[in-house]
Here is the input.
Amino acid sequence: MAMSDVRTEVLYRPVGSRELALIRESGNTRFPPRLPEQPIFYPVLNEAYAAQIARDWNARHNRDRVGYVTRFRVRAEYLERFEVQVVGGSEHREYWIPAEELEEFNRNLVGEIEVIAEYMGE
Here is the structure.
């Protein structure tokens, strides 16, 4: 099966500058391991939700006052194992990937992780 024949789902992830630096170190092909206090990796299903987190949380609460939105594709067949979680309003939809499965998640990325927005705090 050619790569173009693989069904994918577009997902988003709000990140701070430290996580973005680690993504860039990987050649924009993988997300870094979670920290011990982060048991879940949560990619989100829409750009507006990712932007809300990057703007209202990352850009306000990170030390460097900046938040980014990343966009990437994941094999749809892999994501079928997980239920979509709604965490607030109906637009707040995300997957909960256990931290110990992040390497498998990374192996199911198709293409590069790209930065599509940047938010600066005050």
Notes: The beta strands are 8-15, 40-41, 66-75, 84-86, 93-95, 97-98, 109-120. Residues 42 and 96 are 5 Å apart (CA to CA).
